[in-house]
Amino acid sequence: MDTAELLLMLAFTLPISFLPGPNNLLSAAHSSQHGFRNTLPLILGMVLGWILLGTIVGYGALFIEENQGLLKSLTYIGIVYIIYLSYKIATAHLLEEGDSNEEGTKTGILLQVVNGKAFIHLLILMTTFGHVFGGGITGKIMIALVNGLVKLIGWLLWGAFGSGLKRIFSDPKSGILINRIMGLSLFGVAIWIGVNLQK
User: Where are the transmembrane segments (predicted)?
Assistant: First the structure.
């Protein structure tokens, strides 16, 4: 293991893992609606999807780099899905504890598969820091696992943040306002990804 490269990889990964992005905002929004505990299956799906995607990107890094059209198409699909999620959040009514309209593990996995930002992030990791844990697929899987752990911490913190918002703003009017703000923030992320895609 190359310690200097590992530190560089973490310096790249840590800030990105805690900034507002599709996964972080969805964790916060879902937790503000359904509570932290009910958001854990969604976060589990995000982690599983991220590690799965990281492993696939590790295998296919060269193919994806050579096929920019595929990457761009997946990014557009991801933008549409993020906009859909932002709409669901922004238009959601306050739910009673235990309501069944929760996003689960499947949604968490699906978000990773269509998240063009995740592809780009993992592609950069796999191509720039691909030898941190040695060569081959084992090294790539280790990168995906370490990165998944860092992402897990970020998603849990954003989920706790959303749950805290739910407790602070427990009346219906403020709860709906939080839904609107979270939905609008997630929509802003989709627009930001789309604008950057045009550069």
Answer: 43-64, 76-95, 107-129, 141-161, 176-195
